[in-house]
Amino acid sequence: MALQPSLRPLIIAGTADAPHTLDVFLDYVCPYSAKMSAAIDSVLVPLLSAGGKYHSRVKVVFRPQVQPWHATSTLVHEAGLAVARVSPEQFWPFSLALFKRQGEYFDIPSSTLTPLQIRDKLAALAAEVIPANATGSFADLLALKSSPNGGNAVTDDLKYTIKFSRQNGIHVSPTVLWDGLVANEISSSWGGKEWMEFLAAKVAV
């Protein structure tokens, strides 16, 4: 599937020109998304990296799936998109770190925090992952514009990801598309065995 240039870092495994695509719709504050992210990192990333069985055959695209019934979902996905801008190679490591700390952004723990306080927490987390010289740019991208309702510098990227989900009828996370079609059989509970069987059935090596 296509990606606008600013979102190319969302290809988290495989090569951009791979003929097969797994579009994985994940929400940073969804426990099932966190579970799938761990499997992606431990199973798919090695298989699709240089030397892996499916290198140059399959790519994985992280599709941010904002779920507004979680109050922080917009804010955490803004942070991920900001990292993709200022430190593209750290987008996936930051995403994994955020999934591991997602409980801090669940509804009750975050209920007494203002949006600015939540963004400060996300900036502190980003500072653990991205280069020190990128932290200022990260904060600048999340700073609200002078217009009272103008969003911030990654709002357009956020709109793109939300529109992409809506036009494809994606409602829940995680949802996975294989070459553009929903693959309902893929589950967040999948481990190495299930992923290997899936790829063996779908990809001619």
Automatic annotation (TrEMBL):
Signal peptide: none annotated. SUPFAM superfamilies: Thioredoxin-like. It holds the Pfam family Thioredoxin_4. Residues 11-183 form the Thioredoxin-like fold domain. This is Thioredoxin-like fold domain-containing protein. It comes from Mycena pura. The lineage of its organism: Eukaryota, Fungi, Dikarya, Basidiomycota, Agaricomycotina.
